[in-house]
Amino acid sequence: MSSSSQTQAYRSNGDNGDDANMHGELNEWKYRAPYKVHDNDPNFKVRYRASCHCGKVKYQLSREKPLDAKYCHCRTCQKLHAAPFQMCAIFHKEDINFTHGHHDLGWYESSEKTCVHKLPCKVSCAYCRTPIMDEGRNMILLFPTLIDWENDEDRKNFEVSCHMFYPRRIVDVPDGKPKWSGINESSELVGEGVEPEAAAHKHKKAKREQDAGNEENHESEGEKN
């Protein structure tokens, strides 16, 4: 198998190894960041510990603060997390150490909707289905709600900087933080009072129907005259 194939699709053992066609070939992913174990690395200083709901997947973090933390209101996050929005924190792949659960990870590639470790992809516990992270080509997006906070100061290190895809929100979040129409820095800043897209579409549809009705009434009046 070519090295390019190895970096594109690896097997998750959450299915007990019975579905290699779905999850790629072999297990090389275990030995590459972000999945390789840092037990023998004296430079990896544990700063935080986290786990999924059932506890089969556990990991550590060495970085004190994420590179950034954000709220995302896109429809993909809303559906995959079954929540109004998702909180994510960006880390380097070398910042994480999986101490337990290599055999209990599952992949999901959302654009093609396949259970293949093809970057970027969603990573979850294959047993309890807790979302663990989004793995990109260069970075990982972790979900801070999995971290076992030891004090408020640690929690404050993960304060979010902005909201993404805010017009697609399900609930208003008037927290004074910057609101972006799409990905931050790559889209337009919008106000907290910007109309949600669902409501905007509904109003546009109602306006079109109203205009069509007015036009029909106008034509009827013209025929009478």
Automatic annotation (TrEMBL):
Name the chain's protein. CENP-V/GFA domain-containing protein
**Alphabetized SUPFAM superfamilies for the sequence:** Mss4-like (SSF51316)
Where in the numbering of this chain does the CENP-V/GFA domain appear? 48-181
Q: Which PANTHER family match?
A: CENP-V_GFA DOMAIN-CONTAINING PROTEIN-RELATED, GFA DOMAIN-CONTAINING PROTEIN
Spell out the residue ranges making up region: Disordered. Answer: 1-23, 177-225
- Nuclease listed as a keyword: no
Alphabetized InterPro entries for the sequence: CENP-V/GFA (IPR006913), Mss4-like_sf (IPR011057)
Q: Which GO terms describe its molecular function?
A: carbon-sulfur lyase activity; metal ion binding
Q: Which family does it belong to?
A: Belongs to the Gfa family.
Organism in which the protein naturally occurs: Ramalina farinacea
Q: Which UniProt keywords apply?
A: Lyase, Metal-binding, Zinc
> Which portions of the chain have biased composition (kind: Basic and acidic residues)?
208-225
Query: Highest taxon of the source?
Result: Eukaryota
* Polar residues biased stretches: 1-15
